[in-house]
Design brief:
The complex is a heterodimer of chains A (about 230) and B (about 250). Chain A is an all-alpha fold and about 230 residues long. Chain A has helices at about 5-25, 30-45, 55-75, 75-80, 85-90, 95-125, 130-160, 165-190, 205-225. Chain B is mainly alpha-helical. Chain B has helices at about 5-25, 40-70, 70-105, 110-125, 125-130, 135-165, 175-180, 185-225. The chains are: A mainly alpha (about 230), B mainly alpha (about 250).
Amino acid sequence: MNRPHSTSVVLALVRAQLRLELRTFESLPAMCLFSVTSLVLFHFGLNRDQLSGDLASGVLWVTLLFAALLAINRIYVADAEQGGFDAFLMSPASRSTLLCAKLVVLLAYMALVELVVVPAFALLLLEPSLSQALPGLLGPLALGDLGVAVIGALVGALAVRTHARDLLGPLMSLPLLVPVLLCVAGWTAPLFDYPHAGAVAARWPLVLALYDALFGLIAFALFDFLLED
Amino acid sequence: MYSKGLRPLSLITAVSVALTLAGVFYWAPNDAYLGFLQKIFYLHVPLAIITLGGFIAGGLMAVAHLRTRDPRWDMRSYVAIHISLIFGVCVLISGSIWARGAWGHWWVWQEPTLVSFLLIMLLYATYQPLRFAIDDPERQARYASVFAVTAGVFVPICFAIVRLSPAYVHPRTLDNISGNLPGRMQVVFYLALISTTLLWITLWRFEMTAKHVAAQIRHLRRLLGEEADDAPSRRSAAPSLTQVGSAG
């Protein structure tokens, strides 16, 4: 039997997942609404109208990470409950393509959520103007999302077929996401300094990129073992 | 199989722990700056090193399990992580006491070693719940091994990354051993490291032996007909060796 080309398999799986999301709207609206609500909560919890510097960066990233947990929890549910895993295992596609597809889908979700959350954050809480911070913000958003996607794609699969997946997913992913948060928050903080953006230390992008790459390797090495029955 | 040589090993461990305690309290000099409180160093640092080593060993055993599919490797990995978790709680408590004595606070965020240790403990705290949440023993073992490998890799990385945070006040133990520690302190420190390692190994062997004996008793009971073959087993986080029976 001819093995289908991996790229086309990944694209097909991504399309299927996105179509599922478009038909059910299970994750994306919830993530956006949850993030905006969190920003409102931070306003009241911190009793601040405007944030700058590391406080602003922390609020933005914690909000995004918590929103990501909603997607990580849901991304494999249809596969586990409606036979997606069995169907996939019957196909000749290699198993890593599924991981790859989930990774791409998580990346897309995060990017779409950020399209809503970053302007909302700038409008509601951010003291410096978004035009000052936005060019520099693209780097941390991209690498931070990659970290979330890599860890989410692995931990989501680990948690989905357990009795307490809604608890275990976040409990296992959050400690693994702390280094991502540490780097990305340190990277973003000077961008949000008011009135002038500060200089970014070169170690944050470097360390974050290494962490993403390393966990990407781990995820690809281990994912096959999660899909055996 | 795990009980072989357990008695002499226990004896050696007991003697070395007693020797270490004697060395710590009667032979090593008091620290000029911290005084008597510095003695907690001989408990805290070896425990921390062995805990992290135990987690990494658990990860390596999990790799062996994923490669060979031998449930005994899963059992070994489980026991290693289980004992390291208990050691880890002691590390957090003793570290907190030390921080209070040395820096005046029970918790010090500027202290990357303490913070990364907490992160690692938070991650490993989900190991048992993960096992408990999976019914099928084969899948439980497989998923637990995937977790153990991931977390085992996370241990050194987490330390490296948290150490990058700008300010830290923690004494760099291993750098100091050769440089700053006076002779007697150094001897006692290495003695403490050896005895803690022995303690970890002994406890690991004890738990492995207990699990094997339990499996053998269950097997014999089954042969005697006291326990029905298809008796539903209770859901548990701990692996059992029913699949290999008395083969171990």
